[in-house]
UniProtKB/TrEMBL annotation, chain A:
The chain crosses the membrane at residues 21-47, 67-91, 98-122, 128-155, 167-189, 218-239, 260-287, 299-318. Pfam families: BPD_transp_2 (PF02653). One of its GO terms (molecular function) is transmembrane transporter activity. The keyword Transmembrane applies. It is found in: Cell membrane. The keyword Flavoprotein does not apply. Keywords: Cell membrane, Membrane, Transmembrane, Transmembrane helix. This is ABC transporter permease. It is a multi-pass membrane protein. Its main location: membrane. It comes from Mediterraneibacter hominis. InterPro entries: ABC_transp_permease (IPR001851).
Automatic annotation (TrEMBL), chain B:
This is Sugar ABC transporter ATP-binding protein. GO terms for cellular component: plasma membrane. Keywords: ATP-binding, Cell membrane, Membrane, Nucleotide-binding, Repeat, Sugar transport, Translocase, Transport. It is found in: Cell membrane.
Length: 324, 502
C-alpha cells in the first residue's frame, strides 16, 4: 500500500519535471495572453495561418529530431526543402510529366541528397555539422542555377488547391501532413527496433557496433529518411507559397533545430522525443505570430526567439547537472 | 611519533537525499602511506574532493599543516600550490595534447623571449618517461595511447612538481599491468622517503596490506576505524568494510567440464597475436592472463568480429562458422563483455531498460516492432537475476555505481541466452560486495552449462576462478595450466610465463 503510494507520487513529480509539461504551460499562458490582449489573434483566419506556419517547420523539426538523437545535426534541411520545391515547380511548369510523378521525383531527389549526407558523415567521418553545411551550400547554389535565380510559378492547380484548402474552414491540409508525419515518427521512435537503435547510436557508436547494430545502414537510413521528409516539406512549401522561390527554405534549418532542442533533444545525442519537438515548434511559431499581433517588430521577435533557445538549453543543462 | 600533516576534522557532506559523509575525523601523519578503504559509495571520493578543496564540506573542515601553520585549502589550485596532488580514478588528462604538454600543462618552461621552450620540455619529459620505464615518445598524443599508458602518464605527471607534501592515489592500479604496478610502488616508496604523505585508495586489499602503513575504513559515509596495518588482516579489513566476515571470495563451485563448445584455430592478426589455438568446454571457466598488450582482448575482439584478423578458424560445437560482426557472434551464442564498459559496453544516457535489451531487440519484436511489455518484463526479470540495485529500470545507467553498471552489462549479455560468455576485466572499478556477486553469477552460469572466458589482470581473481588458465606474452600463448597444476601454481610462476620475451 505504502509502496504503491510512493510510486504514484514519484511518477507524478516526473510528469511535472518533464520538458513537455513546462512547454505546454508556457504555450497555454501565451495563447491566453494573446487572445485577451489582441483582437485578431483568436480568429479563424489567424489560427489557420498559425497552423500553416507550424506545418512545414514541424515536419522538418521532426526529421531533425531523429538525426539529433543519433548525435548528428542536419544544416542542409532547409536547402533540400527548397530544392524539392524548385524541382517540383520546374517540372510542373516546363514539362508534361504526370502530376504525381513530379511529386515523386521531387521526393526522390531529396532522398538522394539525404543519402549523400549520410554517406559523407559515416564513411568519411566528417562531423555532421560540417558535412551538411557543405551540402547546404552546394544545394543553395544548385537551386539558384536551375531556377536562374527567379521565382517559378505556374504550378499544377491541384497543388495550389492543396495549399489553400482548409478542412471545415479551419484545419489546413498542410497541418494534416504535419500530424501524419509526427505520428509516424512517434511510433517509429517508440515501438521499433530502428527507433531504439537511434538512441543507442546517439549514446555511443562503439556501443552500438558491439551490440550488433548495423551502424552503417542506420546512418544511411536515417539521413535518407530525413531527406524524404524534407522532400515532402518541399511539396508543402510549394503549395503554401503557390510558387517556388530561389531562396525557398533558407533559414528553416535553424527554426527546425531550435524547435527540436527546445523540445528536449540533446545535441550530444541519445535524447529527444516527438512530443517535445511538436511543442517546441508550436512555441517558436506562436511567439512570432502573437508578437506580430501585438505589433512587435520582427527584429525584436528574432531576439526573443534567440533568448528562448538559450534559455531552453540552459535549463536542460542545469537539470542534468543537478541529477548528476 | 611523527607530526600530523593533515587533519580531517568532523566533516560532513550532504547531497540532496544522500549523506555522503557523516562526521568523519582522522589524521594523516607526515611520511606515511595511509590507505582509505570502503565499498563503492562509502564516501571515499567525496572525502578526496573535500581534501582537494573541490567540494566544500557542509560541516567541519580539512586543515593542513603547512610549515607549522594550520591552513584550509579553499580550492584545488590552492591545494596544489600547497603541495597536495591527486590522481583520480578516471583518467583526467588532455587527450588531444602530447605527453610532454600534459606534464607541463600550465607551467611550460620558457625561453628568454618568453616563448615555450619545446626542447627543454621534451628533454625533461623524456627523463620522467625513462624513470617510469614507460618506453614511449613524449610527443605522442594521449588519445593514441592504450588506457594503461594513459593512467601511467597521470601518475608520472605528479613527479613533475617540486613541492610535494600529500599525494592522493585513487585506484591507481585498476588499469595497470603488474610490471607497472611495481614501478608505481617504487615511486610511492620514493615519495615516502622524501617525507611525502600518501593517501592510497584501492579495492585490491593485497596491495593495501603490502604497501600501506595505516588504514582508515569508511562505510556508508561514516568513519569505522583507523588502524596500523600490522593490526589488520585482509579478512578483518573486509569485515570492517562490509560489516560481515567474508572468507575466500574466489571459492566458487566448479563444474565438471563437458564436451567442447568452442575451438579457435590459428588465429593471427597483423600485429597483436600470432598462431593462437585454444578450445573451451561446456561449463568451463577458461582464464587468460598476461600483461597489457599481450593480445588477450584483441583475440576476443577478433573472435567476435569487432576487429579484423588475417587468418584463423572458429568452430562452434564442432562446426566451422564465419563470424563477420558482433551480431554474427551473438547468433552463434557468443557474447562479449568488453574491457571498458563506459565507452563500449553501455549507453550511459539511456535507461537500464534499453541497455539490458539493446543486444536482443530482435528476440522480442515482430517485423521490427518491439513488444514494450516484453521489453519491460525482460528488463525487470534480468535486472533482478543479476541483482542490480535500483529503484526502477527507468533509471539512467550513468547514475549507477560501477558494480551495478557492470551487472547491467551482464544482464544485457544474458538476454541473448549465450552459450559462451567472454568477460574482459569484469571487476575493474567494482567494490568487494559487487565483485562477490559477479563471481556468484559466474558460478550460476556455469551450473547452467554455460562456458566463460575470463580475462583479468588481477591474478588472485583469474587464478582463483578458472578451471584452466592460459598465459600469454606478446601475442603468443606461453603456458597452460589446469587441475592440480593450476591449484599449486604460484603468482610468480605465472608472471614469469607472462613476461617471456617473444
Amino acid at each position: 500500500m505504502n509502496h504503491a503510494k510512493k510510486g504514484k507520487n514519484s511518477s507524478l513529480t516526473s510528469v511535472f519535471q518533464k520538458t513537455e509539461f513546462t512547454l505546454g504551460i508556457i504555450i497555454v499562458v501565451l495563447f491566453i495572453v494573446a487572445t485577451v490582449g489582441t483582437d485578431n489573434f483568436c480568429t479563424v483566419y489567424n489560427i489557420t495561418n498559425l497552423m500553416k506556419q507550424c506545418a512545414i517547420i514541424g515536419v522538418l523539426a521532426v526529421a531533425q529530431t531523429m538525426i539529433i538523437i543519433t548525435g548528428g545535426i542536419d544544416i542542409s534541411c532547409g536547402a533540400i526543402t527548397g530544392l524539392s520545391c524548385m524541382v517540383l515547380a520546374l517540372l510542373q511548369r516546363d514539362t508534361d510529366v504526370n502530376f504525381f510523378l513530379t511529386l515523386i521525383i521531387a521526393v526522390v531527389v531529396s532522398v538522394i541528397c539525404g543519402l549523400v549526407n549520410g554517406i559523407i558523415v559515416y564513411e568519411f567521418q566528417v562531423p555532421a555539422m560540417i558535412a551538411t553545411l557543405g551540402t547546404q551550400t552546394i544545394i543553395y547554389g544548385t537551386v539558384k542555377i536551375i531556377s536562374g535565380a527567379l521565382t517559378v510559378s505556374g504550378l499544377d492547380q491541384r497543388l495550389l488547391d492543396m495549399g489553400n484548402t482548409n478542412i471545415g474552414g479551419i484545419l489546413p491540409v498542410l497541418a494534416i501532413f504535419w500530424v501524419i508525419v509526427s505520428v509516424i515518427i512517434f511510433l517509429v521512435l517508440k515501438f521499433t527496433i530502428f527507433g531504439r537503435n537511434l538512441y543507442v547510436i546517439g549514446s555511443g557508436v562503439e556501443v552500438a557496433k558491439l551490440c550488433g547494430i548495423k551502424v552503417r545502414g542506420m546512418f544511411y537510413t536515417v539521413y535518407a529518411f530525413a531527406g524524404l521528409l524534407y522532400g515532402i516539406a518541399g511539396i508543402m512549401l510549394a503549395a503554401r507559397v503557390q510558387s517556388a522561390l530561389p531562396t525557398g527554405g533558407e533559414g528553416y534549418e535553424m527554426n527546425a533545430i531550435a524547435a527540436a532542442v527546445i523540445g528536449g533533444a540533446s545535441l550530444t545525442g541519445g535524447r529527444g522525443a516527438v512530443a517535445g519537438t511538436i511543442l517546441g515548434t508550436i512555441l517558436m511559431t506562436l511567439i512570432n505570430n502573437a508578437g506580430v499581433q501585438f505589433g512587435l517588430n520582427t527584429h525584436v521577435l528574432s531576439i526573443t526567439s534567440g533568448v528562448l533557445i538559450i534559455l531552453a538549453v540552459t535549463m536542460d543543462m542545469l537539470k542534468a547537472r543537478k541529477k548528476g | 611519533m611523527s607530526e600530523t600533516i593533515m587533519k580531517i576534522d568532523h566533516i560532513s557532506k550532504f547531497y540532496p537525499g544522500v549523506t555522503a559523509l557523516n562526521n568523519v575525523s582522522f589524521e594523516i601523519k607526515k611520511g606515511e602511506v595511509h590507505a582509505l578503504c570502503g565499498e563503492n559509495g562509502a564516501g571515499k571520493s567525496t572525502l578526496i574532493k573535500c581534501i582537494m578543496g573541490v567540494e566544500k564540506p557542509d560541516e567541519g573542515k580539512v586543515s593542513m599543516n603547512y610549515n607549522g601553520e594550520w591552513i584550509v585549502n579553499a580550492n584545488a589550485l590552492e591545494a596544489q600550490s600547497h603541495g597536495v596532488f591527486a590522481n583520480y580514478q578516471h583518467v583526467n588528462i588532455a587527450l588531444d595534447l602530447s605527453i610532454a604538454e600534459n606534464y607541463f600543462l600550465g607551467r611550460q618552461p620558457k625561453t628568454k623571449l618568453g616563448m615555450v621552450d619545446w626542447r627543454k620540455m621534451q628533454e625533461d619529459s623524456q627523463k620522467i618517461i625513462d624513470k617510469f620505464e614507460m618506453n614511449v615518445n613524449p610527443n605522442e598524443k594521449i588519445k593514441t595511447l592504450p588506457i594503461a599508458m594513459q593512467a601511467m602518464v597521470t601518475i608520472s605527471k605528479i613527479s613533475v612538481n617540486d613541492d610535494i607534501r600529500v599525494v592522493i592515489f585513487d585506484e591507481p592500479t585498476a588499469l595497470l599491468e603488474n610490471e607497472k604496478v611495481d614501478i608505481l610502488f617504487k615511486f610511492i616508496a620514493e615519495l615516502k622517503e622524501r617525507g611525502v604523505s600518501i593517501i592510497y585508495i584501492s579495492h585490491r586489499l593485497e596491495e593495501v596490506m603490502d604497501i600501506c602503513d595505516t588504514v582508515t575504513v569508511l562505510k556508508d559515509g561514516t568513519y569505522v576505524d583507523t588502524k596500523p596495518i600490522s593490526e589488520v588482516t585482509k579478512d578483518s579489513l573486509i569485515a570492517m568494510m562490509v560489516g560481515r566476515e567474508m572468507s575466500d571470495i574466489y571459492n566458487i563451485k566448479h563444474q565438471v567440464p563437458g564436451e567442447e563448445i568452442l575451438k579457435i584455430e590459428n588465429f593471427t592478426d597483423s600485429k597483436h597475436f600470432k598462431n593462437i589455438n585454444f578450445s573451451l568446454k561446456k561449463g568451463e571457466i577458461l582464464g587468460f592472463v598476461g600483461l597489457v598488450g599481450a593480445g588477450r582482448s584483441e583475440i576476443m575482439r577478433a573472435l567476435c568480429g569487432v576487429e579484423k584478423r588475417l587468418s584463423g578458424d572458429v568452430y562452434v560445437k564442432g562446426k566451422k562458422v564465419n563470424i563477420k560482426n558482433p551480431s554474427d557472434a551473438m547468433k552463434y551464442g557468443i557474447s562479449f563483455l568488453t574491457e571498458d564498459r563506459r565507452t563500449d559496453g553501455l549507453a550511459l544516457q539511456l535507461p537500464i531498460k534499453t541497455n539490458i535489451n539493446m543486444n536482443s531487440y530482435e528476440m522480442i519484436s515482430k517485423g521490427g516492432v518491439i513488444s514494450l511489455k516484453e521489453e519491460n518484463n525482460r528488463a525487470e526479470d534480468y535486472s533482478k537475476r543479476v541483482n542490480v540495485k535500483t529503484p526502477s529500470v527507468m533509471q539512467l545507467v550513468g547514475n549507477l555505481s560501477g558494480g551495478n553498471q557492470q551487472k547491467v552489462v551482464i544482464a544485457k549479455l544474458l538476454c541473448c541466452d549465450p552459450d559462451v560468455l567472454i568477460f574482459d576485466e569484469p571487476t575493474v572499478g567494482v567494490d568487494v560486495g559487487a565483485k562477490e556477486e559477479i563471481y556468484k553469477i559466474m558460478e550460476g552460469l556455469t551450473a547452467q552449462g554455460k562456458s566463460i572466458i575470463l580475462i583479468s589482470s588481477y591474478l588472485p581473481e583469474v587464478m582463483g576462478l578458472s578451471d584452466r588458465l592460459i598465459v600469454m606474452a606478446q601475442g603468443k600463448i606461453t603456458g597452460e595450466f589446469a587441475g592440480e597444476e593450476l591449484a599449486g601454481l604460484r603468482e610468480e610462476d605465472v608472471l614469469k610465463r607472462a613476461s617471456i620475451e617473444g
